[in-house]
Design a protein that fits this description.
This protein is mostly helical. The protein has a five-stranded parallel beta sheet, sandwiched between helices. Strands 1-2 form a two-stranded antiparallel ribbon. It starts with 9 loop residues before the first helix and ends in a 7-residue tail after the last helix.
């Protein structure tokens, strides 16, 4: 049941009075009010990026993320050295050469500054855990990745100064500043970096460019961008960048003739790292796979925030290849239904986003003009961050009342920008207990078990989700209980609120459905989860989710998806790939 106090406080924020209020919170779960709106905006893959600033000089418990980074990197170095039967010194020099030009100088600098110390401690203590403790980067004896190995270094622990500003005048650009500025951008802006005309569309692929939203076809005219209606009488300009332009022998614009009554529709994703499709390439953390090609493309992957929106369940547009794995999306299927929808997609997912982050600013990344653009189907997807953090308590979870307030504030804003006839699909929070149940005794690419990885990150208070990535079953159950409470807010909003420009639908997060499909075909559940973070749905899962979402919409709201455009064959014959995506 949902409490009478759940939505009452929203009246002051929104000016909208609910029709019926029937909500009762579970008082046994979490009593304290969590302030979702103050969740760190400067997050990356679910981690608080402020912990990177001191780097080797502190952080959270036991050394925090710097300790985790040290242990993981030196474990890879140790394993690489063993595999190739060569010294730690030679391995360091060799691996640094494998990184792209922007990253390699940082690696070289760290080797020059700390290499002798690393070599010395490896000679004394043999294992990466020991070395990072001996260097005083890790500062709590019990926080060890390989906790099944008897520790040799037992202190003393001394404060370590922060990593100094790197001075590399011999390079055109300080790569350290490049990385820090990159992180700062992720924490503050979620629109294209290169956008001359300010329409929130770009000619570049990364840095929130067309990997994330349809490619602009004129970056000096802010009236030209994907999804707009444009001047239907002027067929000489491709106003909406769908590749259809020109006029027929009667002077009528092809856009008007082939698309005018087709019911054009865009796709938008608002959400977190699951919707953005967060993924760390597993070869990065697999010593046996490290070679001169392992880190190719690393700069672009970092500029995309370790996200792959162009391969995600909602907004994927990339082609299927043997390398990429299967790719499908709601956008792809909507485009196939009506080729006039070409390039009309936006993914505004943000790593680490909670409902408060969305309402307080992330939602401003959505580009839509109520008067000039076509309607959209907007997926509102927040799968876990409102119940997840690295803190060892339940008080940092968003409460149902806060979740309702945040969601209603977001909806109020969307009602001012979405065109008439739009639709919103809410996706419920996941049941993250599947992570532990599936992975705990399996081996992570780094060589430890997932139980060891989860315990290590929790010890450092650096886990993306202490509640679910946890050996304590009670904690896992309480986290899911709160997730269920938050998901229950959506049906209550749909029942009690109406909006002028869109209607709404709620679906539970479809992992059980895709898991049933996958296992029925002979697969195993662990094959649907990202191997490096042990947290996110992987490429196969994204592929399967797109089909589940599409089938649900076809069953419940076929009118939302529109009819198949009878002009598709003519469009394809006249305009080919319609300019593609790149």
């Amino acid at each position: 049941m949902v409490s009478s106090t759940l939505l009452e406080s929203t009246h002051a924020l929104t000016g909208r009075t609910p029709k019926v209020l029937k909500y009762q919170t579970n008082s046994h779960l979490v009593q304290n009010v969590a302030d979702a709106a103050t969740s760190p905006a400067n997050t990356f893959g679910g981690f608080d990026l402020s912990t990177f600033e001191p780097m080797l000089g502190g952080g959270r418990a036991g050394g925090g993320i710097p300790c985790a980074a040290c242990t993981i990197l030196l474990t890879l170095l140790e394993q690489y050295s063993d595999i190739h039967e060569q010294s730690i010194d030679k391995s360091m020099q060799e691996v640094c050469k494998f990184f792209p030009d922007k990253i390699s100088p940082i690696c070289t600098y760290l080797v020059e500054k700390y290499g002798d110390e690393v070599i010395q401690y490896f000679m004394l203590y043999k294992h990466s855990d020991e070395v990072c403790h001996a260097m005083n980067i890790c500062t709590v004896q019990s926080c060890r990745l390989f906790n099944n190995v008897t520790s040799v270094f037992n202190g003393p622990y001394k404060p370590r100064p922060a990593l100094e500003q790197i001075e590399m005048q011999r390079f055109d650009e300080n790569p350290w500043d490049w990385i820090k500025n990159l992180f700062n951008r992720f924490g503050n802006d979620h629109v294209p970096l290169e956008d001359i005309d300010g329409d929130k569309y770009s000619l570049d692929s990364t840095l929130r460019g067309y990997s994330w939203r349809g490619k602009d076809c004129d970056d000096i005219d802010r009236d030209v961008y994907p999804g707009t209606i444009g001047d239907t009488h002027n067929g000489l300009i491709d106003w909406n960048c769908n590749g259809i332009k020109g006029v027929n022998d009667k002077g009528v614009a092809w856009e008007e003739e082939l698309c005018g009554t087709s019911g054009q529709l865009g796709i938008i994703l608002v959400g977190d790292s699951v919707g953005a499709h967060f993924s760390i390439p597993p070869q990065w953390l697999t010593a046996a796979d490290i070679n001169s090609t392992t880190y190719q493309g690393m700069v672009g992957i970092l500029e995309n925030e370790l996200d792959w929106p162009h391969k995600s369940a909602i907004t994927a547009w990339a082609s299927n290849t043997t390398e990429s794995g299967p790719i499908d999306s709601v956008y792809h299927r909507l485009r196939e239904r009506n080729l006039c929808n070409h390039r009309d997609y936006q993914n505004t997912g943000v790593n680490g986003a909670r409902s408060g982050n969305v309402a307080d600013g992330n939602i401003l990344g959505v580009a839509r003009n109520q008067e000039k653009d076509h309607p959209v189907i907007l997926f509102y997807e927040l799968v876990g961050n409102d119940v997840c953090s690295g803190h060892h308590d339940l008080d940092h979870m968003t409460t149902p009342a806060e979740f309702a307030n945040n969601t209603l504030r977001t909806l109020e804003y969307l009602d001012t920008i979405l065109p008439m006839g739009s639709h919103i699909v809410f996706t419920g929070l996941a049941d993250g207990r599947i992570l532990w149940d599936t992975l705990w005794n399996r081996t992570h690419p780094i060589g430890a078990s997932y139980e060891q990885v989860y315990d290590f990150l929790n010890c450092l208070e650096a886990s993306p989700c202490w509640g679910w990535m946890n050996s304590n079953e009670t904690v896992r159950d309480l986290t899911t209980a709160r997730a269920v409470e938050l998901s229950a807010v959506y049906p209550e909003i749909i029942k009690n609120y109406t909006y002028t420009h869109f209607d709404m639908q709620y679906y539970e997060f479809p992992f059980p459905e895709i898991n049933a499909i996958w296992t029925a075909e002979g697969g195993q559940t662990w094959q649907l989860i990202e191997p490096c973070d042990g947290f996110h749905p992987n490429q196969i899962a994204n592929y399967l989710m797109s089909g589940v979402y599409w089938n649900w919409l076809m069953e419940d709201h076929p009118e939302w998806l529109g009819d198949i455009n009878p002009n598709n064959d003519l469009i394809a014959s006249m305009f080919g790939d319609q300019g593609g995506y790149n």
